[in-house]
Amino acid sequence: MATSTLEESYKENPQSLQHILPIDFHLIQEVPNSHLWPNINNSPINHDDKSPNVPIIDLLAPNVVELIGHACKTWGIFQVVNHGVPIEFFDEVESQARRLFALPAEQKVKVVRSTSGATGYGTARITPFFSKFMWHEGFTIMDSPLDHAKELWPHDYQEFCDVMENYQKKMKALSFQLWLLILNYLQPSQEHLMNSFEFTQALQLNSYPCCPNPNHAVGLAPHTDSLFLTILHQTNNTKGLQILKKDQGWTSIAPISNDALIVNVGDLLHILSNGEFPSVYHRVLVDQTKHRVSLAYFFGPQVDSTIVPLVSFEKNVGVVVPKYRKVKVKEYLSLKAKHLETVFSLIRS
Ligand SMILES: O=C(O)CCC(=O)C(=O)O
Ligand SMILES: [Fe+2]
């Protein structure tokens, strides 16, 4: 039986072009009503603020399995250092991303995501769930961006493709390493699980242009990520990412260094861990003077896989019942495309 892809699963939930095409940020002097969030109540980003104590994990630490497991359980988000990806490489990827977003709107529209598509230029997929638009434009890549890059730079597309493909390769290897460490924490005795998934990936380049009224605009509205793990690179000094922390409200996560990567748990890992790992609710704020770019790499199981909550890892708590029913990834993504975060209530067992 032929396996389906993430791209095919998005086809089943088409979006309208009106919800896909970003405004031309180069022309904007004032935030238009369509992008004005009157009740968002953002306090301005303080770039000197220290981040909360999100765990920082050294991938070479001898007790890395325990460290990661504990971070997933208590926070659902952590930063990793010593991951082996050289710092200069992030600069290269970011500069290619900036090259794309700096193009005139008439160029970018040539590669706009199709209404039933998954890759290309456009708004965030969660856009239709909100009455206001976000201060954001994105470009999604799954494996090779060749066709789109040729449209954008007919004589000069190779470097963009090489850099993006190489970045995905590096992130895939890192995700797999993290995945094995997490499985080791969840189910040390079940080696068969190590080989029980095929994987899928997507790379999302995010651009948050300077915003004339950052207190009443939103870069990305609150959401959780859908797959197993997200690895995020945000450049130094461009804060914007916030997580919702119990008792503390929205809290900024600043990069601790230019080569630190932020890793967060996504919905499917939340389900697999039987709800033990929180799927982090996060949002992005924007800045008046800094054009922020981030690189989000999503890693998850093939859409034909089935996720069954693992219950045996919760030690010393007696009999544990699954909190969620088993669910096919394809079905989960389709439910989320229709219901966003109320999706969890639909798959509770
Ligand atoms: O830009 C960021 O910091 C976060 C991006 C994000 O949440 C996403 O792409 O899903
Ligand atoms: Fe996200």
UniProtKB/TrEMBL annotation:
Keywords: Dioxygenase, Iron, Metal-binding, Oxidoreductase, Vitamin C. Pathway: Plant hormone biosynthesis; gibberellin biosynthesis; Hormone biosynthesis. Belongs to the iron/ascorbate-dependent oxidoreductase family. GA3OX subfamily. This is gibberellin 3beta-dioxygenase. One of its GO terms (biological process) is coumarin biosynthetic process. InterPro entries: DIOX_N, IPNS-like_FE2OG_OXY, IPNS-like_sf, Iron_ascorbate_oxido_reductase, Oxoglu/Fe-dep_dioxygenase_dom. Its cofactor is L-ascorbate. Residues 198-301 form the Fe2OG dioxygenase domain. PROSITE patterns: FE2OG_OXY. It comes from the Eukaryota. It comes from Solanum commersonii. GO terms for molecular function: gibberellin 3-beta-dioxygenase activity; L-ascorbic acid binding; metal ion binding. SUPFAM superfamilies: Clavaminate synthase-like (SSF51197). It is an enzyme of class 1 (oxidoreductase). Its EC number is 1.14.11.15.
